Each structure stands twice: as C-alpha cells, then as structure tokens.
Amino acid sequence: MLGILFGFIISWLLLYVFEKKSILALGFLPFGKRFFQFISGFLITGFLCVLAQVFESYLQSSSWVINDQISSSLILNSFWWDFKSVLTEELIFRGAILYILIHKIGNSKSILISAIAFGVYHWFSYGILGNTLPMVLIFLGTGLMGYSWALAFAKTKSIMFPFGLHLGWNFVYNTVFSKGPLGETILISSGGKELSDWVSLLNFSTGMFIVPAILIIYVHYFVAKEKS
C-alpha cells in the first residue's frame, strides 16, 4: 500500500513540475466513463486469457479442477496482490512519465519508449537477466503487451483503460488459473501430457505474441481517440 501511495505522490510531483497538472491529468474523471473503460479492459483481457488457457489445456489434454482449499480470503488476498502490483506498474509505465513524454515528443515515440521500458523491466521481475533466449522472448512478449497498453493510454487519455486491460489479464492468469507467484488459488490444472518442442512454442506464442497482437489491433482500430 505504501508503494502505491508513493507512486501517486511521485506521479503528482512529476505532473506538477513538468506540466503544471494534478494527478487528475491521468484521466480518472469523469468517474462513470473511466470506470466503464476499466471494466471493459478487464473483461477483454480476462476473456483472452481464458481462451489462451483453454487452448493450452486442449494442447496438453489436461483439465481444470477447483482448488479444494479455496476460500474467500484466499481469492481476496490474491486479487489484492494483483491489484497492487498492476496499479504500481501502471503508475510507472502508463502514468505520469508516459503522459509527460506524449506532450513532449508525441505519441509514437512515447509509446515505443514505454513498451521498451516495460519489456526490460520484466528481465528483472522474472529473474532472467543473463539468459539470452528467455530475455529476447520475454522482452518481445511483454514489450508488445506494454505497447498495446501504452497505446490504450494515448488513445483514451486515461490510465483507467490500460489499468483494466492489465488487471484483467493478471487476475485471470494468476488468481483464476493459479499461474502466478501466489500458488494454487481458484483452478488447478490436472493431468495432461508434456508438450513437444513445436507445440510448446505454439502454446507459449499464444499468450506472449498472439494476444498482444490482438490487443494492438483492437486498440488501434476499434478504440476511439479522445481529444485533449
């Protein structure tokens, strides 16, 4: 919680120093409109994540079973962890810095810088620094996802839509399908076979490349650009 508070304070200071704006410049208002964008983003990536997991289950011939240790507190704690981590990352990568960059150097360069920074950040968060192939794949995958979310920020003039997109993916992936660092939460994969090299690559590409590509296309062509 302190990290989020610190993020808001730093964001506010940056916005004031460079743009003479308050934290509201990140597009929290009007509330109804921004909440709708947040929920829309959450549902879009949540649905895409479900499709990706169903596809993986099909490839592995596995199934999903409900965790018999499931509880409301387990789900809430996991959701809160996802919420905090996502909001912190959004404030860093799709917050004040991106807002300032867009006003200084334009959308295209700013979105690219944000995407590159997001990809590099995951070298450290995933602990893969020094492993060349994983570094390349993770950089491309998370960079593409970061590009789609930065594009969403630029088009909507709000952090809320990319926040929803980010949280929808992370919550479904981490909490619903128990794929994150918190261990078993709602659903647990049962049975299945080990994937061959090419099939494993196809499965990996689904979440890392195909989903971000779909999001980029969706945001670029179907999300209306708001006026400043």
TrEMBL record:
<dbReference type="Pfam" id="PF02517">
    <property type="entry name" value="Rce1-like"/>
</dbReference>
<feature type="transmembrane region" description="Helical">
    <location>
        <begin position="198"/>
        <end position="223"/>
    </location>
</feature>
<feature type="domain" description="CAAX prenyl protease 2/Lysostaphin resistance protein A-like">
    <location>
        <begin position="85"/>
        <end position="172"/>
    </location>
</feature>
<dbReference type="GO" id="GO:0080120">
    <property type="term" value="P:CAAX-box protein maturation"/>
</dbReference>
<feature type="transmembrane region" description="Helical">
    <location>
        <begin position="111"/>
        <end position="129"/>
    </location>
</feature>
<feature type="transmembrane region" description="Helical">
    <location>
        <begin position="35"/>
        <end position="55"/>
    </location>
</feature>
<protein>
    <recommendedName>
        <fullName>CAAX prenyl protease 2/Lysostaphin resistance protein A-like domain-containing protein</fullName>
    </recommendedName>
</protein>
<dbReference type="InterPro" id="IPR003675">
    <property type="entry name" value="Rce1/LyrA-like_dom"/>
</dbReference>
<feature type="transmembrane region" description="Helical">
    <location>
        <begin position="135"/>
        <end position="152"/>
    </location>
</feature>
<keyword id="KW-0812">Transmembrane</keyword>
<dbReference type="GO" id="GO:0004175">
    <property type="term" value="F:endopeptidase activity"/>
</dbReference>
<keyword id="KW-1133">Transmembrane helix</keyword>
<keyword id="KW-0472">Membrane</keyword>
